[in-house]
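[Automated response] Your request has been received and processed.

Submitted sequence:
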Amino acid sequence: MVSKDQSIGGIIFLVCAVVAVLYVVTLFYPKWIVDLRWASDAGAVQFWIIAVPVFIAFVAIMGIGAWIGWTMATTPPPKPIEEITTEIEEKTTVVEEEAKPAEEPKEEKKPEKKKKTEV
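Generated structure:
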């Protein structure tokens, strides 16, 4: 039994493989795929078959860069390391104090006096 994720993965694989084969065939043998009546020569088709994916990749990379820049510009700066270490130290001292049992006052024992026995 194939899971939903596996079937989606199989479809993605098939679509990518078909597009890759069509891309390579169109790049090297444009007359096989494209009717050249509207294009004056195969060079124009080969130009556009390269230009369009390069354009899409360029715009995608610029979009990712813009997203990273926007995230960096709108994120507040982190606390200085000194503040973080003092907070951690304060928390550990509070936890240690809570973990210690309350000390009971110690009773002072007086030394016992020896009884004198008469013989």
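Summary generated for your ticket: The chain has one domain: 4-95. The CA atoms of residues 14 and 102 lie 71 Å apart.
If you did not submit this request, please reply to this message.
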